[in-house]
Specification:
single chain, 178 residues, alpha+beta, Jelly Rolls, 2 domains, nine-stranded antiparallel beta sheet, 9 strands, 39% strand, Lambda_DNA-bd_dom_sf, Cupin_2, Helix-turn-helix transcriptional regulator, TransReg_Diox_bact_type, DNA-binding
């Protein structure tokens, strides 16, 4: 096995560092804003730590970019953790926005908590099978197969799979370019 600092984690770390420095943010400031430890962020930037989905979203929001800007195209297309499977299906980059399309599977009772995305980001979740709950901005929506919800994703939000079967959904995140 090769040096992890030359693989996908290293490329993600390089993107995080480049975006942070381009915005004039210190390591300390980004870590505090993202709610992660300074040492953890340093290890991410140097490629010594593999980021989780939660960490990527935590860092992307304060940097004002969609997660796709951190992971690039073709890398990390699937991430499985804690009963949640997230597969990136497509990324469309346009002059005014970036659209990310994900297939999400939540195991029964699994909870996916997402920090705020970049300012102005909007999510549309279409439940394909099963049922669950989406919570955002003090609101809570119960969803079943065929249901759709759209909400501002520039605030913390969460998805919870129903205890009797979880759910599978398509999640579309549209983030305006700064």
């Amino acid at each position: 096995m090769g040096d992890p600092r030359t693989g996908a984690a290293a490329r993600v770390g390089q993107r995080i560092r480049a975006l942070r420095t381009a915005r004039g943010m210190s390591l300390t400031a980004l870590a505090a804003t993202a709610g992660i430890g300074k040492g953890s962020l340093s290890e991410l930037e140097t490629g010594r730590r593999n980021p989780t989905l939660d960490t990527l979203y935590s860092v992307a929001g304060p940097l004002g970019v969609p997660m796709a800007e951190l992971v690039g195209d073709g890398e990390w297309t699937r991430l499985d953790e804690n009963g949640i499977s997230t597969t990136r299906v497509r990324v469309v980059r346009e002059e005014s926005r970036v659209t990310e399309v994900y297939l999400i599977r939540l195991a029964p009772g699994a909870v996916r908590r997402s920090p705020a995305h970049a300012a102005g980001a909007v999510e549309r979740l279409v439940v394909l099978t099963g049922s669950g709950t989406v919570a955002y901005g003090g609101q809570r929506s119960e969803l079943a197969g065929g249901d759709c919800v759209e909400f501002p994703a520039d605030q913390p939000h969460s998805y919870t799979g129903s205890p009797d079967g979880g759910f599978e959904a398509v999640d579309v995140i549209v983030t305006p370019r700064a």
